[in-house]
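Structure ticket #2291
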Amino acid sequence: MYIIPDWKFAFLAAPRTGSKAVAKALIEQHGAILIGSHHSIPADHPELEIDRDWLVCSAIRNHWDTMISWWFKIERRGKMRPLSTFLPQFCMNNPSYVQDYQLWWKTLPHTNKVLRYDWLQADIDHALVTVGLSPIDLPKITDSRREGAPYQRFYKRDTVEWVGQYFDTEIAKCGYKF
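Resolution: structure written out below.
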């Protein structure tokens, strides 16, 4: 979690959403302070007085795109398992990242401003300007060898349906489509 206390601004880092780039820019350009670990949330630090008058933001990402990002991150060191094998194994064996059929379970309950990965630069700038801070320049940080290939390219009908059914409630709440 990154805070700028004088401006009552907090950024909650969610995995695979550009959070490292946002954190780096907030620290370098606005002097944000890391509280706890990169993925901390306000509940982890009750000593902080982050209340309703703070702008607390976090990013979300299309579920199909996120799962491809995870697939490339985890499988990059060797021969990649088929996506149809990877998806259920990842979702059922990684409670730090997936809980109760949700990807954004950890950050969204503490957020009053949702940033979309698809429009991350514009959304973070809007959030900053809302509290009186200037926009930031997001650096390009990636740990994927996917190199910008569209996520749709990696799916077949069965895996599209699997992700859609597994995350159905959260996908509906976030308004994403394949």
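Closing remark: The mean pLDDT is 94.
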